[in-house]
Design brief:
5-stranded antiparallel beta sheet, 3-stranded antiparallel beta sheet, 10 strands
Length: 105
């Protein structure tokens, strides 16, 4: 994943992320930051802690990832995806976790 910062303020980070085909991020959260993404092209798949369902977002879709929410993103297609990101909260940008918690039965 290639993240590029557009600008950064004490409580706001904005930029974009390009995700190559087949890439899967590690499990992580964004501390006290709420993250909002707008998908410009391609598909981004989101998996969230404790949920069996996945969210697939395509061009024109917005995705909100609440603060402290453990998740991972991936690109399940053969096309590079591009999303615009805004994070607000002023926390640590990315906190990696060792493994995903088990989904609720």
């Amino acid at each position: 994943m290639n993240r590029q910062r557009a600008f950064e303020l004490p409580m706001l980070w904005a930029g974009q992320v390009e995700t190559e085909p087949g890439v899967v991020s590690g499990w992580h959260h964004h501390d006290k930051n709420d993250s909002c993404l707008y998908v410009v092209r391609g598909i981004l798949r989101f998996e969230f802690e404790g949920q069996r369902e996945v969210l697939e977002a395509g061009p024109g879709d917005f995705v909100h990832v609440p603060a402290y929410t453990i998740h991972r993103e991936s690109n399940p297609t053969d096309e590079v995806s591009l999303a615009v990101i805004a994070r607000v909260g002023g926390g640590i940008p990315t906190v990696n976790v060792d493994q995903a918690p088990s989904p609720h039965a």
